[in-house]
Write a structure and sequence with these properties.
594 residues; Beta-Lactamase; Helix Hairpins; 5-stranded antiparallel β-sheet; 14 helices; 20% strand; binds adenosine-5'-triphosphate; binds magnesium ion
Length: 594
Amino acid sequence: MMFWRSVVVKLWFTILLLVSFVLFILTILLLEFFENNHVDEAENDLNQLATKIAAIMEDYDDKSLGTSIAWELADDVTQVLIIEDSDTYWYSPNRESSENLPISYFLEDPKLSRVLSHDEKVSEKRYFTDADLQVYYPDQMFIVGAPLHITEDKKGAVFLYQSLNVVQETSKRTTSFIWLAAGVAIVLTTIFAFFLLSRITSPLRIMREAALEVARGKFDRKVPILTNDEIGELATAFNQMGRQLKYNINALNQEKEQLSSILSSMADGVITLNRDGTILITNPPAERFLQAWYYQQGMNNGASEELPHEVKELFQKAVSFESEQIVEISFQGRSWVILMSPLYNQTYIRGAVAVLRDMTEERRLDKLRKDFIANVSHELRTPIAMLQGYSEAIIDDIASSDEEKKEIAQVIYDESLRMGRLVNELLDLARMEAGHISLNLEIVEIEPLVDRIVRKFQGLAKEKQISLSCSKNGILGTLNLDPDRIEQVLTNLIDNAIRHTEEGGNVTLKVVSTQSGLQFDVQDSGSGIPEEDLPFVFERFYKADKARTRGRSGTGLGLAIAKNIVDAHQGDISVHSKINEGTTFSFFIPRKNG
Ligand SMILES: Nc1ncnc2c1ncn2[C@@H]1O[C@H](COP(=O)(O)OP(=O)(O)OP(=O)(O)O)[C@@H](O)[C@H]1O
Ligand SMILES: [Mg+2]
């Protein structure tokens, strides 16, 4: 099968067919021509011979000499009959006399007798098959006649006849020569055509192999340019095509890589879906989103390429309304905003692309802001209400004695102080959180600082019957810090400790000096902080006392400020607490800070 489909074989076969056809026609024509030619030549020869014999017979008076010359002139295959008149005639002696045609045949035949009667030359082809002839010639015969006048009054003739076989014999030889030549021509054509075609197709075969290799991705494959003809041009074009392909593929790859690196380095998740909602492409954030969802759904892994139903719905909407859709979903403690836009393929929608943005942080900040406002207004509402109430009491002259008036004024004063402090602390915190905290760093002797602070609280502690002690470990020496700020931190911690410790309890400030810095521990034996609240104590407005009863608690900003100050010193603050046993706040200030 393969063999017949090859171009070489096809062309070869066509050429062979064409050559054979042409040779066949040529041979037929040649044969025709040669045969006619031979017959004509033989006829001519016979005619000339007849005329010559007639002339000899007329010239020679001695008939026996004349006839013998005539017999000499005629060859073996030619029969000669010389008729002087109907009684005198001679047959050439090269046949048995029984094989000779009878004289009557010539004299009676209407056509042949015209030589005698009308002095005409005759030449004819015929079969001597008349039943009355006693001789039988199987072949077609050639017969010519020329008039002969030996004397004026005698009308004679010379007849020559010959079997056409002789001519045909010559024709046959010519034919076989022609056939031989045709055969040789065909064989040579075959061989030459085969070689020529192989030469033409071999570069084509090489090109085919090269094309297959290029299809397999080997764009470097070059085809040798062997000739200067169309095939050479084809090879050049092929090489050019390979180069262009390589260039284009490289460009495509680059584009693809660029796209995929953009996708994978995007902070937002991207999911591309085809028309029936199957996931085509995802990037790492989108992968995390899907994994979280699978986890939530109790699917063990992401092998199931399923979409969360909210996303599926969004996709359906985007495709059917042909417009962007947006939704926010939250699970596993994170909130995601999903923006689904239809993907167009020139005219129709071929899918959609979903951009997932993790909005957790924004939502947290939002909540923080709302909480902050709620807290601030809550903190302000109580003192303002008190100010209003008490000042109203003064205006309405409710207080009867001076004593009472003083008391009311004291409350008003206390509350306004409290409000002022709250506002100041808020401002402080806001400035610190905005990064505007400016530390007045100086080399400070630690021991006197600590002693002073502890002394400051001794009065309060005594009042509440709490023992306040201080223990120092190692040589404290000096440290580069902002003494006022650190005092603020310690003040708040000790104040908190005293405030949350019952009578008879104790509060200890431990200062430990290490190679790397100073560790401050404020330990009390007070009420402690519930375990679940521990992560939030450093947040603004945190108060363990949820009822926010007045008196014991302050504004809830102290620890947030303390954390900011310690952070500004590149330090670290932490808390350990057990309910009803006590609380320890520890902070560490490194020696090398700023
Ligand atoms: N040593 C402690 N023992 C028990 N609870 C504490 C202790 N220290 C702090 N707390 C809890 O942490 C909360 C926050 O303390 P923080 O110092 O930030 O605010 P505050 O003392 O209430 O107000 P401020 O310090 O602004 O006057 C307190 O209300 C209290 O409930
Ligand atoms: Mg406090």
